[in-house]
Design goal:
about 170 residues, mainly alpha, two-stranded antiparallel sheet, 2 strands
Length: about 170
Amino acid sequence: MKLEWMREYRDVVEQLIKYCNVYAAAYKKEGIPGTDIPISYAQIQVIEYLLENEELHQNMKQIAMRLGITTSNFSKLVNKLEQKQLLEKFHTADNRKEVIIQVTEYGRRVYQEYSDYIYREHFSKMFEAAKDIPKECLPLIADMLGVPYKNANCKKKEPPVLIPIHKD
């Protein structure tokens, strides 16, 4: 039975699902080829985001929101990366609760090894396959791929159940 809801996007959806399944299976596993230490794609994404946005000096909550993960999971990732000496934590001078994280020099080297490998082995082939797509279409493709994320974060939040505090 052909699934009619996919319409002319059947091949795109099928490939996207395959990609997501492969990525999901590898996302938290430590052992990405191309680096000299055990590191996961989830951990690499944190380093990548920090390197791209280091001038913003965002706090951990802001970064977690931008990456689309919970602050709890983000904190666990940061702690692992700090243990591996890939990140450092800092307090701001005016607020000790405000924690800013930065990539260490070692973290930069590990990321460079990873990015060289991932480009050579994966993305260069993807970019080659996409070379005939007009550049003006790329924002449309990015928007299309962003829809599931936007929908996942637009769920209506139920109001909290309030329980009175009795003072004895």
